[in-house]
Design a protein that fits this description.
The complex is a heterodimer of chains A (417) and B (401). Chain A has 417 residues and is α/β, with parallel strands linked by helices. Chain A is 32% helix and 20% strand. Chain A has two domains: 176 residues, Rossmann fold; 179 residues, 2-Layer Sandwich (Dihydrodipicolinate Reductase, domain 2), CATH 3.30.360. In chain A, a hairpin with a 3-residue loop joins strand 14 and strand 15. The longest helix of chain A is centred in the C-terminal third of the chain and has 19 residues. Chain B has two domains: 156 residues, NAD(P)-binding Rossmann-like Domain (Rossmann fold); 186 residues, Dihydrodipicolinate Reductase, domain 2, CATH 3.30.360. In chain B, the strands form three sheets. An eight-stranded mixed β-sheet of chain B has the order 9-15-14-10-13-12-11-16, sandwiched between helices. A six-stranded parallel β-sheet of chain B has the order 5-4-1-6-7-8, with helices on both faces. The longest helix of chain B has 19 residues. The chains are: A alpha/beta (417), B alpha/beta (401).
């Protein structure tokens, strides 16, 4: 038996802990769920529920071989479902993260931890970031890991933290303690229309991603969708040298000056099924870029300008009012334009989150993250720095801290089967 | 006024009604305003120069479109549209969209859209001009089998390219797969939604565009049986179609109604399905080579088109969703019309049909047989007239780029 003392002693020599299972080899994996809220259509509910009632995957209704053994919910607003789920599916709701992970005992008593710190009533900082306690939940989990001398896989929904410093600590802890970790958005893994991947080692000359919705929620999704494509460029990911966020008329002026490519914006929007404006009025198709209607449709545009350390530049445009879906286009040497829509399927099924849950389950069962947590780390940092730029008069900010190197997986990770 | 360029085909559109979200609006607008295609904004290399609109209501858009596109003239008759006011055929292709508008419904529940009547007037101009040009006809050929057969026979005897049908066979598929060429299929079905003599046709085309690729080619259908209400649930229980296959198709849906409050995506039990679907409809039909297929309308359970087939070699289930991003609500554009219009353009340019008209002749006959079976108290209908043999093209024609 490993005590805390022997654990600490052994980690000095071999800092990586084996993320071994506590359950019987063929028994269901025991999962602890840690969420901010568990109410209808919160991320906690639609991700958590899939481990309880299954989900559509590869043309079947897949019932994961897992048992949710405990739940911690930080807030129980009206519509809370946590106690109802606990009763129906035979687990307990615990008052602290540590107790949930230990199932009320003194040491780690689960095989995986699912952290969903999205939705709920939390304050915003001056950058407009919602201060979800993802880092705090994660810290409480890793403390149990350290105390128990054992670590298990952790999924952390969306960006790791509003703070890159905290996000870095989270990734460092997973590397130190040797447990697999996955995070991020469902956009990188959802269906694509068309079903296209960025070729590995592509010579990407320029890229534009279009997103819609509010800041520090939907902009993260768009940035991670962009990142999952451009990380496949020649040389792999090397990190980001500088960012700048501009808003209002400066966005259109930057387009006129060629800071971002109108050709790529037009290409990305050609993938949209949701143009606004005259399409709403009478159903017509529209060349939103060529017709010049965009400034009239988008009262508050924002451009997230990203300069990578290898010299590559990409732009994420938040164009709420122009369309309602997420579309990408890049110019690739030798291939022309590579463009697609990241399909966000309708409410309430939001089947795109089933694509994500299949990746989470894969990590929980194989103890190997299907793609690098560094993608989510870098995206978390890009977002934070862009919001800092906005706060500091939209000036260009050097980002030496975003020297995040990683290689994407050779095989594609999005839903296509 | 922009003159049409030499060498660009001139097109006439003959439609029932031009209002927001009518089929004609989706199709004709794409020819006028262009549409997103292959990752750029595409303007068709042809000119829509003549329009006939059968019904002009308060919500009409044809005059707004004609004002914005002065090269397109509105004519009071089909003959005048095709001759552009002259005496002889003066266009290089015709688009017939006889869907939507206020037309009588007959006792069998069929809307009597005047597709056959329009077709007859179109070919009358072809005949009197001594020249025929490619023709696209939206959805099923006619509500009446005999007329559909006559349209088919006329196109063959006059020798003009003729394309018809639904956008379901050509839209995105999720996942992006086709029926493997010359594969062996033992059963197939489509679970979809909508009404009889309407979306049933789309479901039948969904099945047909997949199973026509099977080994031996298409042999036609020998009988059909429709079910509704309690008899639908009895037939499901008795295995008139495979429940496993139906479940596989439903697992491709993005719009599964949650059977329990508080859950957003949960697979229903058979009892819950029955609670959710108040008016189910099924058409089961048997092909001349023994293949059995089923089209299921399950309003209340889903709002998309999902296909599944049991394969013999290699054994297993092949399934996909034919993606219909339907306005209003989920999208603002009915972009499944984009691949359809692109195939129309190809036919106008190359004078080659992108896929066999026999597919739509067969599904037109199946739709009529389904309606008739329901009308005749859900009796089994023999369909010797549907012994339609054809070979599709090997290359896939659905939207992939």
């Amino acid at each position: 038996m490993i005590t805390r003392r022997t654990f600490l002693a052994s980690t000095a020599l071999a800092p990586v802990l084996a993320a071994r299972a506590s359950a019987a080899p063929n028994g269901p994996l025991r999962i602890a769920v840690v969420t901010t809220v568990y109410k209808y259509l919160s991320h906690g509910q639609h991700i958590g529920d899939r481990f309880l009632v299954g989900y559509p995957h590869n043309g079947e209704w897949h019932q994961p071989n897992v048992k949710v053994v405990s739940l911690y919910v930080d807030q129980k607003p009206e519509g809370d479902l946590s106690e109802a789920r606990a009763r129906e599916f035979g687990f307990r709701v615990y008052p602290t993260v540590a107790e949930a992970i230990c199932c009320g005992g003194k040491s780690l008593a689960c095989d995986a931890v699912l952290i969903v710190g999205e939705h709920g009533d939390y304050p915003k900082n001056e950058k407009g970031q919602i201060l979800y306690p993802r880092y705090e939940f994660f810290e409480q989990a890793t403390k149990v890991f350290r105390d128990s001398g054992r670590a298990v896989p952790v999924y952390n929904d969306k960006h790791l933290s509003y703070s890159f410093e905290k996000a870095s600590k989270m990734v460092a802890a997973s590397k130190e303690l040797g447990f697999p970790m996955l995070g991020g958005s469902s956009l990188p893994v959802t269906w694509r229309l068309p079903d296209v991947e960025m070729p590995l080692d592509a010579h990407i000359e320029d890229a534009v991603m279009v997103g819609v919705g509010g800041s520090d929620a939907m902009d993260f999704h768009a940035l991670e969708a962009l990142q999952c494509m451009v990380e496949r460029r020649k040389g792999g990911e090397t990190g980001v040298k500088a960012v700048q966020m501009i808003t209002g008329n400066k966005v259109w002026e930057a387009g006129d000056k060629g800071v971002w490519s109108k050709e790529l914006l037009s290409s990305a929007l050609s993938r949209s099924d949701t143009p606004m404006g005259l399409t709403i009025k009478d159903g017509r198709t529209q060349d939103l870029v060529g017709s010049g209607v965009l400034p009239g449709l988008v009262p508050h545009p924002a451009a997230y300008l990203i300069e990578y350390r290898d010299g590559f530049r990409a732009t994420m445009l938040m164009l709420t009012g122009a369309v309602e879906d997420f579309n990408f286009s890049a110019r690739v040497r030798g291939k022309g334009l590579v463009s697609t829509q990241f399909l966000l399927t309708p409410v309430p099924n939001v089947t795109y989150s089933a694509c994500l849950v299949s990746k989470i389950e894969q990590m929980f069962t194989t103890r190997k993250a299907p793609y690098s947590i560094d993608r989510t780390l870098l995206t978390s940092g890009i977002l934070e720095s862009c919001l800092t730029s906005k706060l500091q008069d939209e000036k260009r900010l050097e980002t030496p801290h975003l020297k995040v190197n990683y290689r994407p997986t050779v095989e594609s990770q999005y839903c296509r089967a | 006024m922009p003159e049409t360029t030499h060498g660009r085909p001139k097109i006439a559109a003959v439609i029932t009604v031009y209002r927001k979200y009518s089929h004609a609006q989706h199709i004709v607008d794409r020819l006028l305003d262009g549409y997103g295609w292959n990752g750029t904004y595409h303007h068709p290399p042809m000119d829509l120069v003549a329009l006939y609109v059968d019904q002009v209501g308060k919500d009409d858009l044809s005059h707004e479109r004609a004002a914005r596109f002065p090269a397109m003239k509105i004519y009071p008759t089909i003959a005048e549209a095709l001759t552009r006011g002259g005496s002889k055929l003066a266009v290089d292709g015709v688009v017939l969209v006889g869907e939507h508008g206020d037309y009588p419904r007959n006792e069998m529940g069929q809307t009597e859209y005047p597709r056959y009547k329009f077709f007859e007037q179109i070919v009358s101009v072809y005949k009197s001009s001594g020249r025929s040009v490619p023709l696209f006809s939206d959805k099923h050929l006619s509500w009446k089998w005999e007329w559909a057969k006559q349209m088919y026979d006329t196109s063959k005897s006059m020798g003009f390219p003729f394309m018809a049908g639904s956008s379901l066979p050509v839209t995105w598929r999720i996942p992006s797969i086709d029926m493997p060429w010359k594969s062996s299929v033992s059963e197939a079905l489509c679970v979809c939604y909508g009404g009889v003599d309407s979306y049933d046709f789309h479901g039948l085309e969904t099945v047909q565009c997949m199973v026509e690729r099977r080994a031996g080619g298409e042999t036609g259908v020998r009988s059909l049986q429709a079910y509704r209400g309690d008899r639908f649930w009895d037939a499901m229980k008795e295995g008139a179609w495979s429940y496993d296959l139906m479940k596989a198709a439903l697992c491709r849906s993005h719009t599964l109604t949650p059977a329990r409050p508080g859950f957003n995506d949960i697979f229903p039990t058979r009892e819950q399905m029955r609670e959710l679907v108040k008016k189910p409809v099924a058409y089961t039909y048997e092909y001349n080579d023994g293949l059995r297929c089923t089209m299921l309308l399950m309003n209340g359970l889903i709002r998309d088109f999902n296909f599944a087939a049991r394969m013999k070699q290699p054994s297993g289930i092949l399934s996909t969703q034919m993606y219909l991003p339907m306005p209003d609500g989920r999208t603002t554009l009915a972009d499944f019309f984009s691949p359809l219009v692109h195939h129309i353009e190809d036919m106008m340019l190359t004078h080659k049909e992108p896929y066999p008209i026999e597919r739509t002749l067969l599904t037109t006959g199946l739709t009529a047989a389904g309606v008739e079976s329901l009308y005749r108290n859900q009796t089994r209908i023999d369909t010797p007239q549907l012994a339609i043999r054809y070979e599709p093209r090997r290359e896939s024609t659905f939207w992939r780029t």
